[in-house]
Specification:
By secondary structure, this protein is α/β, with parallel strands linked by helices. It has one domain: 3-Layer(aba) Sandwich (Rossmann fold), CATH 3.40.50.300. The chain is about 35% helix and about 20% strand. It has 10 helices and 10 strands. The strands form 2 sheets. A 6-stranded mixed beta sheet has the order 6-7-8-3-9-10, sandwiched between helices. The protein has a 4-stranded antiparallel beta sheet with strand order 2-1-4-5, covered by helices on one side. Helix 5 packs across helix 6 and helix 6 packs parallel to helix 7. The longest helix is centred in the C-terminal third of the chain and has 18 residues. The chain binds adenosine-5'-triphosphate and magnesium ion (MG). The site of adenosine-5'-triphosphate has 11 residues, from helix 1.
């Protein structure tokens, strides 16, 4: 068992943003979390990475309750579970390579960071990771000069510098056009497939969840209302997750990555028609 989430709750005042959720993951998987705005998706990721404290419950990763860690152990866990965000969170005026090298900050002294003394090994590693993500030629450019899709790949590269066991992605493609969204999701999927790192991604669109995830968790009002394989995610189930009324339409939850057709999508569409 890699991950055990047990009865995790987060209250803000009297409102439960996450309300007694439990699930287990047997081996590192690519997991999508979907649900309408306010369902509790970000709050869950932030608790897992310890950016926010849980009110109660346990999150066990490889047996250890990460919600109970303090000090150096907590920081160690945070470097093992890297986070990427919708808005990339890069330093805009800094060059791409330095942004990536900041992924090593948790194990570096303040002084060497202030003067940007990066060890050669780290520089080579950063360049290799950028190369792997197809953006090595951007290494010396300022982050702000890159397209959104390139910037998100820089953020993924920065996460990989930590050599994380888990990548938590909070709506990683919500600010991207369909073409860039596909490149970024392909990158995350490839990292999962090749390195065996677990990915948990909050996704605001059904089609992306269906296309990239091994397993999809649907949240509504802080609770898990669906947990299954992507092909179980029928329109009826989706309507239940999103709590939508008769006006519900799949297009409202689509990034239109579907506009770039693939055989898998065509096959899926055929199944949905019968
Ligand atoms: N710091 C906070 N203080 C008070 N309430 C909060 C705070 N953070 C989140 N909430 C509330 O908790 C609930 C869940 O929020 P959360 O951000 O986890 O939802 P989400 O599923 O990520 O939504 P979105 O799709 O809009 O990102 C919402 O009702 C939100 O208003
Ligand atoms: Mg959110």
């Amino acid at each position: 068992m890699v991950l055990q989430v047990r009865n995790v709750t987060r209250l803000f005042g009297t409102k439960a943003a996450v309300n007694d959720i439990s699930f287990t993951v047997e081996k590192p998987a690519f997991i999508g979390i979907i649900g309408r705005s306010g369902a509790g998706k970000s709050t869950f990721l932030r608790m897992m990475n310890r950016l926010t404290d849980a009110t109660s419950g346990e999150i066990r990763f490889e047996g250890r309750n990460v919600l109970a860690l303090h000090g150096a152990e907590k920081r160690d866990w945070q470097s093992q579970c890297a986070m990427i965000f919708q808005q990339f969170n890069l330093v805009p005026r800094m060059d791409v390579a330095s942004n990536v090298l900041h992924g090593t900050l948790n194990r570096r002294s303040t002084l060497s960071t202030m003067f940007s003394f990066w060890p050669d090994d780290d520089v080579l590693k950063a360049l290799a990771i950028l190369d792997r993500l197809g953006i090595a030629e951007q290494a010396t450019k300022r982050a702000e000069a890159l397209s959104g899709g390139q910037q998100q790949r820089v953020a993924i590269a920065r996460a990989l510098m930590q050599d994380p066991k888990v990548i938590l992605a909070d709506e990683p493609i919500a600010s991207l056009d369909p073409m860039n969204a596909q490149v970024v999701m392909d990158s995350l999927r490839r990292i999962h497939d090749e390195d065996g790192r677990m990915v948990i991604a909050n996704l605001h669109t059904l089609d992306t969840a269906r296309r990239y995830c091994d397993r999809v968790i649907g949240m509504r009002d802080g609770r898990i209302v669906f947990d299954g394989a992507p092909d179980q995610l029928t329109t009826g189930v989706a309507r239940d997750i999103y709590g939508a009324d008769a006006s519900f339409s799949e297009s409202a939850t689509s990034t239109s990555i579907d506009a770039l057709p693939s055989e898998a999508d065509a096959e899926y569409a055929r199944r949905m028609l019968v």
